[in-house]
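Technical note accompanying the year-one report. For the benefit of new consortium partners, we illustrate the data format agreed upon in the data management plan: each record pairs a sequence with a structure-token string. No post-processing was applied to the example shown here.
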Amino acid sequence: LFRPFATDRLLKALPQTVERIAVLDRTKEPGALAEPLFLDVQAAVVDGGRNIKVIAGRYGLSSKDVIPADIVAVFDNLAADNGKKFFTLGINDDVTFLSLDRAEGVDVETPGLTECKFWGFGSDGTVGANKSAIKIIGDHTDLYAQAYFDYDSKKSGGVTMSHLRFGTNPINLPYLITEPQFVACHRQSYVHEYDLLRGIKKGGTFLLNCTWSPEELNEHLPAKLRRQIAEKELNFYIINAAKIAAEIGLGGRINMVTQAAFFKLTEIIPVDDAIKYLKESVVTSYGKKGQNIVDMNNAAIDQGVGALVKVDVPADWKNAVDEGGHKAKPGCESCPSFVQNIAQPINAQAGYDLPVS
């Protein structure tokens, strides 16, 4: 896509003050001296007689996100006297040691931006409801909106993750949300399976769909999750969406209940307007299935707004330790090494954290 290479234009665009360049290729060419864009840039610099040091990086392989912390790491490596001439981004390469460690404490503040992450169960309606929500906000407000839905090709019965962004300025963030202000978990068993609150901002909001009462949370929530809630000073809410959906006749389709609760908590748009737009989307989505289906979904919206329960987080959750009747989800001590070290982290949505070794 970049050949024939415009050497003259590149040299003309480079200020005379440039001393070092990092070229990032999203490819790996086994058997080649290096990747193609790097080779062409380096050749152009030599051809132009410029005294510039050019180094090469690889990124994005196996669809790994490149986030701002990675770019900071590239600049840090460029500035270092003994920086790597060849490097990779987004992985932990403990075999050839070519990877750059992500810079810590990088927070790209974007005024007026709200980032939300939803953990759902394939077939519970979470993805469909979030598509409706992003469309409602995009169509009925002046806000910019972005959505990405992360799930297996066999969605039904598997975990789904929805990433939603809303902002007063154009959104140019081509990577998954790593520091959400709002997290919703629509399936209570996930509290033992996934790191639901990873990266959530201090003072953010956590909504958990569960059948437990506030008094039972201390017994059922794992210690790590309780510590995260307390340490991050989160606004913690629970809702029994499954009970509401069952009583109305929707079965496992909890999406309208939880979506109404989302609009109530985030106040991205006035809740009365949100309810009106949600009910309009119900007619669009389910009108052909009959008025009864429409009425049931409308009832779910009305009840979802009023069914939220604010949890007063005990101070001692900061020091929570699993003990007694509840234990964290056990590992498979007798399983083969592959299952313990690779399959289990992947199943826990922590596959990107695995080192190359």
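Partners are asked to follow this layout when depositing records. Confidence is low (pLDDT under 50) at residues 324-329.
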